[in-house]
Amino acid sequence: MAHDPLSPAEALRTRLGTVVATVPLLTLVYSVVIAAQPLLGLIVAFGLTLGPYLSYRLFAALDALADAAQRIADAREREAERGDQFGSVAEREESSADRVSERERGR
Question: What CA–CA distance (Å, rounded) separates 72 from 67?
């Protein structure tokens, strides 16, 4: 089953989301008020905010990709099992091609 990632608004409502939002905000306030280096604060705040979020979204995308690959493999396996019961598709196509060539020879 595919992983259902939280939206950013839903993620902020969790305890971890609150911490992840508060730490960059405090870092930004510290860099502006105390250290007087707003650019450094912005870089760190964006890094602390976007890094975990992008990692989370990447994990969700890779999980969905793996789930899709598994579903494709399951579908192909079921088709192969059905093909074994009724003969393979290649055999059916080959026999229909033989029938067509026999009809053409008969004309």
Answer: 9
How far apart are alpha carbons 91 and 97 in whole angstroms?
A: 10
Cα–Cα distance list, 24 to 1, 2, 16, 19, 45 (Å): 33, 30, 13, 9, 4
What is the pTM assigned to this prediction?
Answer: 0.51
* Region 48-61 average pLDDT: 85
Asked if 67 contacts 2 with a C-beta cutoff of 8 angstroms, the reply is: yes
For the purposes of burial, counting CB atoms within 10 Å of the CB of 40, is it exposed (0-12), middle (13-18) or buried (19 or more)?
Answer: middle
Of 14, 7, 3, whose CA–CA distance to 64 is shortest? 3
